[in-house]
Amino acid sequence: MSDNQNYKVREQDLIKTDIGAYLKRHEEKDMLRFLTCGSVDDGKSTLIGRLLYDSQMIYEDQLAAVMKDSKVHGTTDEEFDPALLTDGLKAEREQGITIDVAYRYFSTERRSFIICDSPGHEQYTRNMATGASHCDLAIVLIDARHGVMAQTKRHSFIASLLGIKHLVVAVNKMDAVDYSEEVYEQIRKDYVAFAAKFENINIHFIPMSALKGDNVVERSENMDWFDGRPLLSYLENVEVAADRNLIDFRFPVQYVLRPNLNFRGFAGTIVSGVVRVGDAISVNPSGKTTKVKEIVTYDGKIDEAFAPMAVTLTTEDEVDISRGDILSHPNNRPHTESGFDAQVVWMNEVSLKSGKNYLMKAGTQTVPVTLDGVRYKFDINNLNREDTDTLEMNEIGRIGFTAHRAFSFDTYSRIQKTGSFILIDQLSNATVAAGMIIEQRAQEKKEVSGEHNINWEKGMVSQEERETLMGHKASTIWLTGLSGSGKSTIAQILESKLVAAGKKAYILDGDNIRHGLNRDLGFKPEDRKENIRRIAEVAALLNDAGIIVITAFISPYQEDRDMARSIVNRRLEDSSGSVFHEIHVDTPIEVCEARDVKGLYAKARKGEIQNFTGITAPYEVPESPELSVSTESATPASCADLIIEKLGL
Questions:
Q1: What burial class does residue 88 get, using C-beta atoms within 10 Å of its C-beta: 0-12 exposed, 13-18 middle, 19+ buried?
Q2: CATH class for domain 3-243?
Q3: Which of 64, 66, 169, 488 is the most exposed place for a label (fewest CB within 10 A)?
Q4: CB distance 33 to 134 below 8 Å
């Protein structure tokens, strides 16, 4: 008898003898919510059916019904079609596809699970996005016969946008390719190349056959070349508790409870952080403050509560708090603005229209918003950005919004529940899009900080006088490329050659800057953006002094490099032409990783370094650099000479 069969027998005995102990045991188990996704007919429903069947988690009458239906609706030419355990709609069984999101629950001795089986067809992408928003992990299935498909990429990208930090890439139907290790390795290589732009995601690969049961619950004897764990073992042991944010307290108020004159409480679910009796709290967006008097639950009063508990809070003061308000700690409040940018998955058959008004439902808040315009959309095949002024159904892009009143929110990367929203058409009441807030609008920040009252003060020494004094024009040479591409080496040689020629040059190196000026910044996208902004401002000041600035920064995002260009050129608006020169050090990642002087790539692949460009974070190749060089085909010294020649330094 297998471990799962023994477990099932023990559970049945416990139900008969002590139902209270049975319920308490399941209540104390850790819960994992996971999603199955991928292209159509990759075997998502079959995998779930096999997982339930092999783990002995199907009732006998349910199994008998599936055996009967397999003869009529089965699509596998087998006596038992596992997919019918989840394809419950009549239309699904008749067509052999999944249309709606199906949820299933099962439990093992280690953990309880909620499975979300999403449809693979492109027109049901919105259903997949809905299911993914509640999951801790996603299983992306790939048909071994077909490899990585467009819908595989779309579902993977949506999962990453929605903040899922754990992806299991299940290369399914290995039986159809004779359990070939070469086929599996090629698919793995293709997926890794595509997913290199994903940020802070743990990706795990498993070859399997859901229909035959290989590597689903038990290890496969047909793939002895694979030394990893089967799927169920991985799901039982993957660590997701660390993904929860217990630092930033956020409590969206759902209801105001007033059962009698002596009680006024505010009910809702804590979406992040911890709150204790006596804590000072801020009411957002009003900014009023009070203290927590009581924390009330169904089982009575408690002294402390944390995400994701559903509780009722009472306050010491009679403060105006309503549905839609977000409670936080006073020194850690969400943004309260009306302008913001968001990544959006467009779900409507009618194209997005800039300037149109929609209702935005963000948690318990409902706010009218105007779509200011589409910044760009993503090419789903390579995740490159494309210019556009609209989004079609199932397309993903970045959009600017203006809310009709200020509301409270966080960036999605910080707190998912207060950084996500849906858009509702005001006439049809249809949900047309799902969005993840990236940042508050730069214009709004400017107005809040009072920068509109600050002007650039010009001195009495002109740019021409500085150029005459220095004997050359100022410029910024912006070297961008992967870690290990040779940027710093080229920069050092370039500085040496320029100084030897009597020119005033200075290097701003990425590592050196993070030792001082930018030591407070991490490596999340918003930190990288601020890192580049500060460097560009410093470069502009040095240019204004007449110095040639050489920078050596990975600077992975085109948007950030464009921002740096605009900052540098703006400061020297009196000089002719652009003084910003983008140089792409185009050394392949294989060469960079082979060098791995600092051991960073190795640490990134082991998961010891998060958000590492080229491995777990994207690098966007420059669209139109002034020059491209490569230390794979040329020495750093010859690259420096080429830069001097081409830029006329």
A1: middle
A2: alpha beta
A3: 64
A4: yes
Average pLDDT of adjacent 10-residue blocks, the chain of 649 residues = 55 61 63 84 80 66 56 52 52 42 76 78 61 82 91 85 87 94 94 83 92 90 93 89 81 92 92 94 92 93 92 92 93 90 90 88 90 87 84 89 90 88 89 87 46 59 79 90 90 92 88 81 75 90 90 86 84 60 92 83 80 80 89 90 89
For domain 251-328, give the CATH number: 2.40.30.10
CA 535 – CA 520 distance, rounded (Å): 14
Top-tier CATH class for 335-441 = mainly beta
Look up tokens 């050394």; give the residue: 587
Distance CA 207, CA 216 (A): 9
Alpha-carbon distance of 344 to 557, in angstroms, equals 19
Kindly state the tokens that stand for 226.
Answer: 């694979």
Which residue type sits at 609? I
641 within 8 A of 501, measured Cβ to Cβ: no
Q: How remote is the C-alpha of 431 from its chain's centroid?
A: 22
Of 194, 162, 312, 298, nearest to 251 by C-alpha is: 312
Q: Which residues contact 119 (CB under 8 A, 6 or more apart)?
A: 40, 97, 98, 99, 100, 101, 127, 128
The set of residues, in sequence order, having a beta carbon less than 8 Å from that of 606 and lying 6+ positions away, is none
Residue 535, amino acid:
I
DSSP 3-state of 596: coil
Q: Are 162 and 129 in contact (CB under 8 A)?
A: yes
Residue partners of 627: CB distance under 8 A and separation at least 6: 581, 583, 584, 642, 643, 646, 647
CA dist., res. 329 & res. 636, Å (int): 52
Which has the closest alpha carbon to 299: 314, 309, 291, 284? 309
Cβ-in-10-Å burial (0-12, 13-18, 19+) of 496 comes to middle
Please report the DSSP string for 630-643 in residue order. -TTTS-HHHHHHHH
In this structure, the number of other CB atoms found within 10 A of the CB of residue 378 comes to 20
What is the pTM (predicted TM-score) of this model? 0.57
Q: Which of 630, 463, 649 is nearest to 550 (CA)?
A: 649
Residue 529 near residue 458, CB atoms below 8 Å: no
Q: The domain at 464-647 falls in which architecture?
A: 3-Layer(aba) Sandwich (3.40)
Within the chain, which residue ranges are assigned CATH 2.40.30.10?
251-328, 335-441
Domain with CATH 3.40.50.300 in the chain: 3-243, 464-647
